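User: Structure with magnesium ion, tokens only please.
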Amino acid sequence: MDNLDNLEKLIWFDPQKCFIDGVWQDPNSNNYLPLLNPSSGKEICRIARCSDQDVNLAVSAARHSLDGEWGQFTALERGRILQKIGSLVKDKIDLLSKIESIDVGKPLSQSKADAIALARYLEFYSGAADKIHGETIPYQNGYTVYTLKEPHGVTAHIIPWNYPMQIIGRSVVGALTMGNAVVLKPSEDACLTALAFADICREANLPKGALNVITGYGSETGEILSKHSGINHISFTGSVQVGTKIQKNAAENIVPVTLELGGKSPQIVFSDANISQAIPFLMKAGLQNAGQTCSASSRILIQKSIYTKVEKALAAQYKNLTIGPAIQDFDLGPLISKKQVSMVQKYLNLGLDLKKIAELKLNDKHENGSFISPTLFGMVDPSHALAQEEIFGPIQVLIPFDDEEEAIKIANGTKFGLVAGIWTNDGSRQLRMAKKIKAGQVFINNYGAGGGVELPFGGTGHSGYGREKGFEALNSFSTIKTIAINHG
Ligand code: NAP
Ligand code: MG
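Assistant:
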């Protein structure tokens, strides 16, 4: 095992247990899976491989909590407990960051940003809990009509390995804010901060059963959870392929779903843009978390008159990049797994016919971890697979365009529609572009790759549907009941 002494000092809970009904429990299956450190390829600990019995226990604990103490909590009390959890997360930011870097391979400062974001989600939603309310509606004479915003009930959260803490913040915390009871299934590749979060909630005295965390394979534990008839809502973040399955499973139980899937998000640079302001965003938004970000900006569209200038500036930036073990905080760490490396390598092979503008070479030190060279391709045709498909690795393509009309056509020319960035100082063009771009978020003269706790986030097309983050998430995690009283 790798870094065991170090990890043992960091984790204060037993990662082999699952968190059900407010207590740590051994999995009924008595089966375990290895958790790997992607920087070294070595096992760091084992996690529980939860079976259908464990899923049943977690779902029924959640249901009982709604009938019990958690269901009786007022909005103010929910806000207060989230505030308490938030302050405990704040106290543990350094610890959580290190655990995440070892588990996920994310450079330390990027893990720290995620831990800070989790604390900020708790701060934001704790303040929102008692400010969400229904309406009174004018109706016929003799009637008073009002609406109640109610929780769905038991919500299932199936989250990926790329941003566990941020996704817990935007989905689990959003659901708890509205009074739902949660069953969380983190990715088998990245469980530790989800388990840490469970223990922090225990320490804060979150009523038992309000949060349950079960670990295991997605195709096993995750699938059982998504098919469970005791679930009232599913929040899924991950691939289009699994998202489609989740939707089908949910359909069998007539359960609403929020799908946060992938993207092929463009940044569009016009000739009147402030190029030196844009350059760091153009690169960082594509390479953050080694490109394993649903809102990664993997396409950069550049107006022809400034194409060469921008290409050169980006090539120079790529030359300064560093890559290495996550805990040492280089610009890039490894990918999550060797499996992910081979998926990304497939795209690098498809790019053999393209013009390579920059590439950061690996050396012997990278041999054991799941590292891959960040690569920038130039003069890419918008129909090329590298300009159409989500790669989920540190690969960016540059695409030249003539005018606004062509930029919109290329930007909207994929199956996805998650985020877009537009770089121009022409105010009218900013407004026109923002309206015409197919995306859930549009950034003008900046690019916040998924950032902004306050900002509603989600996609269109194959990027999914439903919104998380901001106040809007609280609509996704609740349902409206209309009450019409005939009082004459
Ligand atoms: P994935 O397979 O879609 O996994 C996402 C989550 O779903 C994980 O918790 C996974 O658990 C679980 N899962 C897998 N199969 C399931 C099933 N049949 N039923 C229920 N849950 C299931 O994504 P991935 O394999 O980690 O990554 C593959 C690709 O997905 C990436 O290359 C990328 O394109 C995309 N992706 C997108 C995002 C995003 O934020 N939009 C995030 C991650 C990945 P296990 O991990 O334990 O299998
Ligand atoms: Mg791991």
